[in-house]
Amino acid sequence: MHGIWNPWHGCKRCSEGCRNCYMFYLDALRGKDGGTVYRTIKGL
Ligand code: SF4
Predict the structure, then answer these.
(1) Within 13 Å, how many C-alpha atoms sit on residue 12's CB side?
(2) For ligand 1, is residue 23 a contact (CB within 6 Å)?
(3) CA–CA separation, 43 and 8 (whole Å)
(4) Which of these, 16, 33, 42, 43, is most buried using a 10 Å CB contact count?
């Protein structure tokens, strides 16, 4: 079950606090680049 609704995926590191970003970590595990920002739902 998915408890999070988010029409976007990805982000741009913007501060020192982003060094260990979990989203970038998980995307790297999946062979993806977390820096690629895209819509997950069309038409919004
Ligand atoms: S921690 Fe990750 S998701 Fe949060 S602002 Fe930084 S790069 Fe974006």
Answers:
(1) 3
(2) yes
(3) 12
(4) 33
